């Protein structure tokens, strides 16, 4: 089956007719349909399927000896996301295995295609939940407590989708000697460089922080402006301050999700909950940025007669990918070395790297540079260049004399 055929199979699953964006919520019907497709692709290639109790799955081409070379990515999406973030890595992995087999390549070690669950944290709020559980970066006890927006606990959501949850590190990681994740680029670095393929150098530290603003519910008409304790106002001023602060220091601060209670047009709200996504070049600067935004929020709350509490929900430290491995994949290509570039987006590759697995990432050019939006894009020619690049990388890692 070609890359294009596989892409067409996945294309309608979870796509909104109105926006053209995708919502493949972890353990929801669209994501499970993608997962069923994943299992079909494994079966069609004779890959041996191994799953853990967290919902992560690997299809192994059992060949050669020793720990395997894992590729793959994730199948879940953000709310109204693009088609490529995640699935491009999975589809490209199957296509790369087909290419290697067509070439008669004989791997010296097993080759696996993986699908990690809840990479986006769109349902349970914690980024890369599947790979964190698999590597022990989050305890099963903490994961048991996670709830989605409707209050459904993680194990219940898994059970409702037909899984038998057994959270925590299982044996899946033991088979993994090295991981390469191919991903659509989520910015315009490769466009600006005129390159179709790049290799990751690092992932910026990033985190999600819940800001709970409390105030006093009251009538929108009869309450004089000076008598209000309006948490929406405190939120709005905090969001402006966060934007200014991040701009001034070349960092990122985004309030992308809010909830207001009671969310009525003609009432001052009693409570506003807003989630800050913050990203910086260093762990120190991330901590400083979030502390400063919190300080400004508290300062504003003091003036508005409102309250604020800040809770870190998901924090990912800086990841520097193995520079030797990145260099080994980037060098020695017709047309020159692939550029090695940083990213501000989080990935399961970052979690596996932090767990001590030699890890690399390949990026495929995205002409819009847009991601986490229906406008996310990649040209078919670049996707096919990505398949070729991944196949070449797997050859280097699983061929004769591979050392990683
Ligand atoms: C995941 O794509 C993230 O960076 O939030
Ligand atoms: Mn992704
Ligand atoms: Mn994403």
Element layout with pairings:
Layout: H1 3-10, H2 29-44, E1 48-51, E2 57-61, E3 68-74, H3 87-102, E4 111-116, H4 129-135, H5 140-144, H6 154-160, E5 176-184, H7 189-193, E6 197-203, E7 206-214, E8 218-219, H8 231-249, E9 252-261, E10 267-268, E11 271-279, H9 283-304, E12 307-316, E13 319-320, H10 323-330, E14 340-343, H11 348-354, E15 359-364, H12 380-398
The protein binds glyoxylic acid and manganese (II) ion (2 copies).
One manganese (II) ion (MN) binds at residues 78, 85, 120, 372.
Can you put this structure into words, describing what you see?
This protein is an alpha/beta fold. The protein has 12 helices and 15 strands. The strands form 3 sheets. Strands 1, 2, 3, 4, 5, 6, 13, 14 and 15 form a 9-stranded mixed sheet that branches. It starts with a helix and ends in a 6-residue tail after the last helix. The model has no long low-confidence stretch (mean pLDDT 97). The structure holds glyoxylic acid (GLV) and manganese (II) ion (2 copies). One manganese (II) ion binds next to loops.
Spans where pLDDT lies below 50 across 5 or more residues: none
Instruction: Give the amount of beta strand, in percent.
Output: 15-25%
Q: What's the average pLDDT?
A: 97
Give the overall shape, derived from the CA principal axes: globular
Number of helices: 12
Number of strands: 15
Q: What structural category arises from helix and sheet content? A: alpha/beta
Biggest sheet features: 9 strands, mixed
Helix fraction bin: 25-40%
């Amino acid at each position: 089956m070609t890359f294009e055929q596989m892409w067409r199979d996945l294309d309608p699953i979870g796509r909104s007719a109105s926006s053209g964006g995708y919502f493949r919520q972890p353990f929801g019907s669209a994501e499970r349909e993608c997962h069923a497709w994943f299992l079909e692709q494994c079966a069609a290639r004779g890959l041996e399927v191994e799953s853990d109790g967290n919902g992560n799955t690997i299809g192994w081409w059992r060949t050669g000896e020793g720990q395997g070379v894992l590729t793959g990515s994730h199948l879940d999406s953000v709310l109204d996301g693009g088609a490529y973030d995640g699935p491009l890595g999975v589809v490209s992995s199957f296509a790369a295995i087909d290419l290697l087999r067509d070439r008669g390549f004989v791997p010296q070690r097993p080759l696996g295609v993986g699908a990690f669950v809840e990479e986006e944290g769109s349902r349970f709020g914690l980024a890369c939940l599947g790979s964190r559980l698999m590597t022990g970066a989050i305890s099963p006890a903490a994961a048991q407590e996670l709830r989605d927006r409707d209050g459904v606990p993680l194990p219940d959501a898994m059970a409702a989708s037909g899984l038998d949850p057994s959270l925590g590190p299982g044996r899946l990681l033991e088979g993994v000697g090295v991981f390469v994740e191919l991903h659509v680029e989520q910015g315009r670095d490769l466009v600006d460089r005129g390159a179709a393929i790049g290799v990751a150098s690092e992932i910026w530290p990033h985190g999600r922080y819940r800001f709970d603003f409390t105030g006093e519910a009251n009538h929108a008409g009869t309450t004089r402006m000076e008598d209000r304790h309006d948490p929406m106002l405190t939120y709005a001023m905090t969001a402006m301050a966060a934007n200014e602060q991040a701009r001034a220091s070349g960092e990122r601060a985004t309030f992308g999700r809010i909830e207001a209670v009671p969310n009525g047009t003609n009432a001052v709200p009693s409570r506003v909950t807003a989630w800050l996504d913050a990203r910086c070049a260093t762990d120190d600067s991330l901590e400083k940025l979030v502390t400063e935004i919190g300080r400004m929020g508290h300062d504003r709350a003091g003036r508005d007669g409102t309250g604020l509490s800040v809770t870190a929900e998901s924090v990912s430290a800086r990841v520097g990918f193995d520079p030797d491995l990145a260099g080994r994949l980037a060098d020695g290509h017709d047309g020159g070395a692939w550029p090695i570039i940083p990213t501000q987006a989080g990935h399961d590759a970052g979690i596996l790297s932090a767990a001590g697995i030699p890890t690399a990432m390949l990026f495929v050019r995205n002409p819009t540079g847009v991601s986490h939006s229906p406008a996310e894009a990649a040209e078919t020619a670049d996707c096919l260049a990505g398949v070729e690049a991944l196949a070449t990388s797997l050859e280097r890692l699983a061929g004769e004399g591979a050392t990683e």
